[in-house]
């Protein structure tokens, strides 16, 4: 049981960078980007190929981040310059990345067994918390700069930010590229931790990322950007713990992982809505009772005055 929880914590930290990327597009930019499923594999593939060719694993991870940036730039340009729908732009790029990833890797699976990775000398429980905290600090510092504020404003009200002279096309491309860079970096680290990169390793990543964002916001709140980014990281960890616990149920198999993910997302989406509806119903009931009591007291005073 303890080993399962520790494994879930480790995976949660690895996938938290991907969740932060999804948060940038899904929440900040309001951009439904499906490039994630392809750029995650891109990061894993670039890192695996470079490491097997003798490159430093940290350099390979940085190159993976750069590959994700390029994938995000392509998606952003398809949307902003090509005037293609945001959802369709992501789908097109996701499909294109499948072939690109095969070109990068040269085969469907690249093994890293026996190779030196970022986790070879330092345990993931030491490396990942430091890496996640550092990236959180850098991301929050960026989001508080003028460019970062313009990026956040683009998602909130693109028309308003354009009226102030900001180029929303630039901020959109920047946000999507940064998001996919983080996703690719997460893919590179996951590949190094698991010991291989596979052409199908990115399938369903967008759903996992959304689950992490929604769970984090629902449990830990989202009062401001700093609070929300921390909540997203914690949401990725909670998601992995929930999955690990669910897989311990006797009648569930590891092949049910995607089904478990879908159920978790559904619950995470439905619960906040149901909670809001219940709160509104209770508030309406309370107001009705207050109005009824006020009306009753006025009626009694009027009747008393007549007598």
TrEMBL record:
Transmembrane spans: 12-29, 58-78, 85-104, 124-143, 164-190, 196-216, 228-247, 259-278
Membrane topology: Multi-pass membrane protein
Localization of this protein: Cell membrane
InterPro entries: ABC_transp_permease
Keywords: Cell membrane, Membrane, Transmembrane, Transmembrane helix
Coiled coil stretches, renumbered: none
Origin: domain of life: Bacteria
UniProt keyword Transmembrane helix, yes or no: yes
Pfam families given in the database record: BPD_transp_2 (PF02653)
Signal peptide limits: none
PANTHER family xrefs: ABC TRANSPORTER PERMEASE PROTEIN YPHD-RELATED-RELATED, BRANCHED-CHAIN AMINO ACID TRANSPORT SYSTEM, PERMEASE PROTEIN
Annotated protein name in UniProt: ABC transport system permease protein
Organism in which the protein naturally occurs: Paenibacillus favisporus
């Amino acid at each position: 049981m303890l080993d399962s929880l520790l494994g879930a914590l480790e995976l949660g930290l690895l996938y938290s960078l991907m969740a932060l990327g999804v948060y940038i597009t899904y929440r900040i930019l309001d951009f439904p980007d499906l490039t994630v499923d392809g750029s995650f594999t891109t990061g894993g593939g670039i890192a695996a190929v470079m490491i097997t060719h003798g490159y430093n694993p940290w350099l390979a991870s940085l190159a993976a981040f750069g590959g994700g940036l390029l994938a995000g730039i392509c998606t952003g340009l398809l949307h902003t310059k090509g005037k293609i729908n945001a959802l369709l732009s992501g789908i097109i790029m996701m499909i294109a990345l499948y072939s690109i990833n095969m070109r990068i890797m040269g085969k469907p699976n690249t093994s890293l067994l026996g190779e030196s990775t970022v986790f070879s000398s330092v345990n993931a429980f030491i490396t990942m918390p430091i890496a996640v905290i550092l990236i959180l600090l850098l991301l929050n510092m960026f989001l508080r700069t003028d460019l970062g504020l313009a990026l956040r404003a683009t998602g909130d009200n693109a028309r308003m930010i354009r009226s102030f002279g900001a180029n929303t096309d630039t901020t959109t491309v920047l946000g999507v590229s940064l998001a996919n860079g983080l996703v690719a970096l997460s893919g590179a680290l996951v590949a190094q931790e698991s010991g291989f990169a596979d052409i199908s390793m990115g399938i369903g990543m967008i759903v996992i990322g959304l689950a992490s964002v929604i769970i984090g916001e629902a449990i830990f709140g989202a009062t401001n950007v700093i609070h929300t980014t921390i909540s997203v990281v914690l949401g990725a960890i909670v998601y992995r713990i929930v999955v690990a616990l669910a897989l311990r149920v006797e009648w569930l198999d590891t092949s049910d992982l995607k089904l478990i993910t879908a159920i978790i997302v559904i619950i995470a989406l439905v619960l906040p809505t149901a909670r809001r509806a219940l709160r509104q119903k209770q508030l309406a009931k309370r107001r009705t009772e207050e109005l009824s009591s006020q009306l009753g007291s006025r009626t009694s005073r009027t009747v008393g005055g007549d007598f």
